[in-house]
Amino acid sequence: MTTPAHLRLLPWTGPEGKPCYLSTDDRHSYMSRLADNIESIQLGMAAEVLDHATTTLRDKHATPGDLRLLANELTTALTDTLRVATSRSHPHTASTPD
Length: 98
What we know:
alpha+beta
């Protein structure tokens, strides 16, 4: 008897913003590696946005437009980071999809 495939939350959404899942037992499959690489890029970009936020918030001459752009960048980075954290901390099994 084989164990059920795990459903992995992927670091991107499908049509209409719905979550995408990968069903595989192979952590080294092409799609698993692609998801790992994209997650790594997303986390790296989040670190860069955080550095940018620190600089912008210390800038006494930052305009409301600068702060609005920063808020958008931080929102995107936080959304991506939470998706990665959720994917890594809550593995789903095929018998209990989310």
